[in-house]
Amino acid sequence: MKRVGVRCDVGPARGIGHVMRCLALAEEVKRRDAELVFVCDADTVPWAADQIAARGFAVQPAVWTPDAHLGLFGKLGLDAVVFDSYDLDAAVYSAVRASGLPTLAIVDGDFRGAEADVLIDQNLAAELDQPALPPNSIRLAGLPYVMIRDEILGHRPAEPPVARPSGVPDVFAFFGGTDAFGAGPQVARALVATGLPFQATVVAPNPSLAAQVAAVTPQAHQHLEVIGPTDQLAARVRKADLTISASGTSTWELLCLGATAGLVCVVDNQAMGYERAIGTCAAAGLGLLSALEADPASAVPVLKRLLTDSVERERLARAGWELVDGKGRERVADALLGLI
């Protein structure tokens, strides 16, 4: 049986986006009778550790130097390595690749020093970019390579979404496994500022964020509930009339599910993906988190349209469903296992 290592970022500040897309690829590779080992500090985010453990994947603590990686990968007897990191030094990639171990690196625009046999950029319109590649590398780019987890694929509708009966809209808001930038409370304030009826559920991964959301006072015809991290994410998204999230890796999951997505750009490295997603007219842009922090009402015009226009919600949901077909992880697994 082939053995593949997955070296990815995770942490309270970094979030869980790297782990989530690596899990999607790992599920597909496991389906093809390969063994997976994650190398990351999953224990720093218990929910992420639970997600890895639930799939039966082993975990080794993260290492940081080139020599430490070579030693660990040799000890584990790996046949290939997947990298997904913003934090690793470029010397790690070059050392591992120079050792002869087949490598695949997941990137987002800027390679950040990543060097690998195969580079994957699953972002919208990434295929239009023409970056200089490391010697003897290939780059697979764009939405055909979006990696989607089993949980999401199991809830993907077989047909394009259709308009739902009008009524008080159901809103679901989540910002990854940690909400590292505190977007949840700001979105709750913006929803209340619309003055319109809604039933909203906001995910708050820690007590501090939960208290901040709970401190937001809805108007008489508005309902605001706060919950902790949930393993029923896809079901919640499918149930909602509007889902609000960060413009990170979860965007592609929302589109695959046929969700009406309202996106917040919570950090600078999401800006390109945010602008491109909004440009497709498959998602609505609520703006920069910094703008919401300064004035929650800055998102009110877009939110009012999304809360009141069921035809617009259907149009967005259908457009997203058509963009992401859910087969990207199969294409990436083909490329990875083809190296071994």
TrEMBL record:
Task: Name the source's superkingdom.
Answer: Bacteria
Keywords assigned: Transferase
Give any GO molecular function from the UniProt entry.
transferase activity
Q: Which SUPFAM superfamilies match?
A: UDP-Glycosyltransferase/glycogen phosphorylase (SSF53756)
What this protein is called in its record is Spore coat polysaccharide biosynthesis predicted glycosyltransferase SpsG
Source organism of this protein record: Kribbella solani
Upper taxonomic lineage: Bacteria, Bacillati, Actinomycetota, Actinomycetes, Propionibacteriales
